[in-house]
Write a structure and sequence with these properties.
Blueprint: H1 4-19, H2 22-35, H3 41-52, H4 60-82, H5 95-114, H6 120-146, H7 152-179, H8 184-207, H9 222-229, H10 231-261, H11 264-273
Helix pairs in contact: 1-2, 1-4, 3-4, 3-7, 4-5, 6-7, 7-8
């Protein structure tokens, strides 16, 4: 029996092969192969909420694949705009090709959604949800790129727009297709899930000492805002710790040298000779 991830991947490859011609498909399939190495979290949320509220149709996997294509397009644009992740596949091909593939993915996502055999009225509700969420995410991404946030509230607003809106989109797609109604409880916890996911990413990018390190890149996140706010305390504490480490290392080095320089046999012979 196929897992939900396998069913989503089957739909993803079918969509790309059926709608992208040879040259575009060549790059798109490579991007898709990289995407399929990850967990299909957004498509999974769509399927989960559809099933959770009683949806039974297997056509939900086509919609989940459309969701994954939309998220993949945003991931590509994000990496190109941030100019990080140099080893990822879409950063290793010409930028214009990567941008064109990303555009193709988002258009294919929308086309796949609206051509689904699920209830047409509910699909229109989902389409409106996608339009709102994607436009909100683009606004949040712009705020992130400008890197001007200075307060916690500004950070929270940016994450609500950039990240939480996409998690809400995934959860509400399944919910709307199953029930036909907007569920405020789902919206609320999906928003919190988006916050948690972004904080996890920010922690990773702060301790990841490569080209994506937020501290080295002076990227303003909640964590770096706190670092700047408490920099004097952190600096003083760091100096104290550094001094303690230097003293400890010095003592250990001196002790080791004294130990190595003391030869019991040599000293015994000198004493005996005397």
């Amino acid at each position: 029996m196929q897992s939900y991830a396998e069913k989503i991947e089957e739909q993803l490859y079918e969509l790309v092969r059926n709608h992208f011609k040879t040259d575009l498909a060549f790059y798109a399939l490579q991007f898709l192969e990289h995407k399929c190495k990850e967990k299909h979290l957004f498509g999974g949320l769509t399927v989960l909420h559809y099933r959770m509220f009683g949806g039974q149709s297997e056509h939900i996997y086509r919609v989940a694949a459309a969701m994954e294509l939309a998220i993949l397009s945003l991931d590509i644009f994000d990496d190109l705009q941030d100019e990080d992740q140099p080893n990822i596949i879409w950063r290793q091909c010409p930028q214009a090709i990567a941008m064109n593939a990303a555009l193709g993915f988002v258009l294919l996502a929308r086309q796949s959604l609206m051509s689904s055999e699920l209830d047409k009225e509910r699909l229109l509700q989902v389409e409106a949800c996608w339009d709102r969420s994607l436009l909100t995410a683009v606004n949040g991404q712009t705020t992130d790129l400008l890197n001007r946030i200075a307060t916690e509230e500004e950070y929270y607003q940016m994450i609500r727009e950039k990240s939480s809106s996409l998690v809400v989109m995934a959860c509400m797609t399944g919910t709307l297709l199953s029930t036909g109604y907007w569920n405020e409880t789902v919206e609320k916890y999906a928003c919190e899930l988006g916050f948690a996911s972004q904080l996890k990413n920010d922690i990773r990018d702060l301790v990841n000492w490569d080209s994506k390190n937020d501290f080295l890149q002076r990227k303003r996140t909640l964590l770096t805002l706190y670092l700047m706010k408490y920099a004097p305390l952190i600096r003083n504490g760091f100096v104290i710790i550094l001094r303690a480490i230097l003293i400890l290392v010095t003592r250990c080095t001196v002790k080791k040298k004294l130990k190595n320089s003391f030869n019991p046999q040599e000293h015994f012979c000198i004493l005996k000779y005397k």
